[in-house]
Amino acid sequence: MISTQANTNTARTKKKLAHTSCEDCTNSGCLIKRNLRLSALVSEFVEEKREFTCKKSQQFIMEGAPVNGLFFIQSGKVKVFRTGINGREQIVRFANFGEIIGHRGFGTHEYYSIGAMALEDTNLCYFSKENLQKVLLTAPNFTYDLMLFYANELNRSEAKVKSISQMTVRERVIDTLIYIERKFGRKNNFINVALSRREYANYAGTTEEQVIRVFSALKKDNLINTKGKRVEIIDSSLLKREISEHNFYLDS
Predict the structure, then answer these.
(1) Rounded to whole angstroms, how far apart are CA atoms 98 and 124?
(2) Predicted confidence (pLDDT) per residue in 148-166, tens digit
(3) Domains in the chain, please, with CATH?
């Protein structure tokens, strides 16, 4: 089951969903969806999943809580974070529909090393650790697919560390804007997620004040436009050119 602390903090906002068939799910890139027909055990496994809705700003994984399973985003947007020095939030990644949450603790630790919070109303599928371990031991194709997922996640994490160590603050903020636009796309010309300046800073590895300064400079250069928390990238090619020497853009 989900952590007791998480249940206590979110009991009033969590809403259980009617069971949705994985075959009817529109997330074709979901690891479970891709492997659904490989084994009868996988099909049996998905019947035991739980589904629920997290409201905007609701935290559904508590950092330090016991690892009980994995979450898959059916719809919505999520930020994954951990607590840094002096209690400051460090955003590890953002996640969109079809992506896995909670895998950093699964199989290696008894406790989640990260926290996760919904950026908007988000529907989640939850698979218990016990059921997941059972299918991993008996469905090799599924296990191999999950191993490749972990390998890709590790490559992205290592590339991000290298990039951040070599970039200026302005370059890190630009790289973050490009990444978030690629991750969530656009709606009415604006990046399709509303993030605070602090959240941009917590992902870029800088301060809120620095992000405000960089945004102001980018607006003067007619590279971005802002409306409250919404950001419009006016010219992606010019932004990419500024960080092209690093030869790296974070994948979505």
Answers:
(1) 9
(2) 888 888 887 777 777 777 8
(3) 4-158 (2.60.120.10), 167-246 (1.10.10.10)
